[in-house]
Amino acid sequence: MTDRLSYQTPMARKARLFVTELADDLIVYDESANQLHTLNPTAAFIWRLCDGRTSVADIAAQFGQAYGVTDATDIVWTALDQLVQQNLVVTEMERPAWLAGLTRRELMQRVAVGAFVMLPLVRSLAAPTPAQAQSPGTTLAPTTTGAPPPPPGPPPSSPPSPPPPVMMGMPDEGSDASARGVKPDQVWW
Question: Residue ranges per domain, the chain?
Answer without folding.
Answer: 3-128
